[in-house]
Amino acid sequence: METKRITSKEIIAHLAEKFPACFTVEGPVKPLKVGIFQELAQALAEDDKVSKTQLRQALRHYTSSWRYLKSIKEGAQRVNLSGEEIEAIDAEQASFAAKTLKESQEKFANKKPQDKKENKAYKGTKPAEKGSTTKASKAKFKAVKAKKAPAKKPVKLNKVEANALSAGMKVMVQVGNSPLDATITEVAGKDVSVQLTSGMVVKTQADKIFTK
Description:
- By secondary structure, the chain is an alpha+beta fold.
- It has helices spanning 8-18, 36-43, 52-64, 66-71, 91-111, 116-121, 127-146; strands spanning 77-79, 85-88, 158-159, 170-175, 178-188, 191-196, 201-205, 209-211.
- The strands form two sheets. Strands 3-8-4-5-6-7 form a six-stranded antiparallel beta sheet. Strands 1-2 form a two-stranded antiparallel sheet.
- The chain is globular.
- It starts with 7 loop residues before the first helix and ends with a strand.
C-alpha cells in the first residue's frame, strides 16, 4: 500500500494492531496521554507506512470521534502506548470534551433532513403533554448548567515569538474566544500543531500561541 494513499481509518487500524493496549478500532476507547504524538512519532520513526503528517491527521480524527470524546470523563485515566495509566482527567478537561461532543452531535443533527412522518405524529399532541416535555427539557438544562465549573479569573497572556516555539512546550492556545491549555507537538514555520488537555490535536498559527 502506498503511503500517500493510506487513510486515517487505516492508520488507526495499524496503530490498534501495533499498540492494542492503547488504541482500538471498536468498543470502549482509552483516553490518551497528553503528548502521545511525540511518543508515537518516535515509536514509528522507522515505519515507512505512516508519515508524521498522516499520523497527526489520524490522531486528530481519532480524538475527535464521539466514542473517544465520551471516554473523557472526570477521574478516568489517560494511558501511554503500553496501556499504562499516566494521569487522571480533571473536571475542566471532562467539561471541554462534553461541550465538544455536544457541539459535534448538534452539528451532525442539523445536517440531517427533518423526518416529516415524525413531525406529523406530534401534531395531535395535547398541550399538557407539550408542557410537560418543555418542563422536563428546562429541568435537564438547569441540571447541566448547575454542573458547570465556576468561572475562573481572567489569565494574563503573553505573546510568544514564533522562533521561540518548540515541541513539548506548555502554552495557551486561542480557540474561539477562550484560551486553552495545550502542549506543542510540532512547529513548521508559522504553522503550529498542539494537543489540548482533552487529548485533541489541532493545527493553529504562531500568533494564536501564548504563555501565562
